[in-house]
């Protein structure tokens, strides 16, 4: 089920902050500062006008035309500042636009509609439409246009011979104010749609990432299935031998005296304990969850693998371990490394007809740690060796191989920032070499 898009003032502020553009990402801070500065300037100028000039309440010769415009705008600047502190940006913008509108209209009224102060109205209308949208910005623009029309009709210049010209100028100014407001509103809608599209794309990308991770997880599990099947066959063979030993102890214990029976029971318990790790390891290998990468001692992991493999491989296969000291750790997934080693050893066992040997070596170079799995089996022709890491490529008869084992090895090595190589000659065996980068500092575990 698709999650509906949630778009709110908080998500808008979060999106603007994520752009990291100096003006855009800090729009809330700028709104708060402008509102506080406007309140301070208007309060100071309003109080100064009343104290300095006897006619300072509302007069054209004073800054901002006196105390009335300044003191009328001051409360709205303060309200805008408080809302901006609460992260209520749309309300703060509305009060800020209203304060600027009052300040502009009241400051320009005594000076006539042709005063340059009125030219701030189109800019205010544009910003209101752009930042607040149609429902908030257009009423403010209409109020500003109405103030310009009234100033042209009833303002100080209306009684002079230039009244008709002032009225015409007022109509032009009103039209410009409304046009700028509509332009800002259209830009606001465009920005809104852009934000919705960006949020939808972000949501789709997140869903796609989750799907890809799930598929990757299932693919990794599928890559394990082939290995687990081969391992299960070898484990069943070893368990069958174990069961024969158990049956022998039971048969001999049934005809023996009490002391011999107790000895047989102890031997049965010992045999079962020896068989239990085989089942535990098979269960871990079949689990779909992967391990976590960490700093590991490659030599210890290889030694642990050899202990498990000796219990699983058939008696006609001799397993040889040659582990040199490794003094640095590698950042690897230990379970993934064990899985890769099982794939290589299983392939080596299948390449050996009759009796043979598999040698697992490990060591380090100045560049990192390395592991080799070598067998004395049938080897590979060059054309086969060139394709062994391709998915689903196999030389086994139909139904006996999936061609995913060596693909899993290559994927693990690449994801671990390592490299895998193979050397093989028909009739003389095959050697796989895995190389992994290691830390510069010596491992504390090995000493």
Q: How would you summarize this macromolecular structure in one to three sentences?
A:
This protein has 447 residues and is α+β, with helices and mostly antiparallel strands. It has 13 helices and 7 strands. β6 (419-425) and β7 (429-437) form a beta hairpin.
Could you characterize what this model shows?
The protein is an alpha+beta fold. It is 63% helix and 11% strand. The protein contains 13 helices and seven strands. Strands 2-4-5-7-6 form a five-stranded mixed beta sheet, with helices on one face. The chain has a two-stranded antiparallel ribbon with strand order 1-3. A hairpin with a 2-residue loop joins strand 4 and strand 5. Helix 6 runs antiparallel to helix 7 and helix 8 packs antiparallel against helix 9. The chain is rod-shaped. It starts with 8 loop residues before the first helix and ends in a 10-residue tail after the last strand. Residues 1-7 and 443-447 have low confidence and may be disordered.
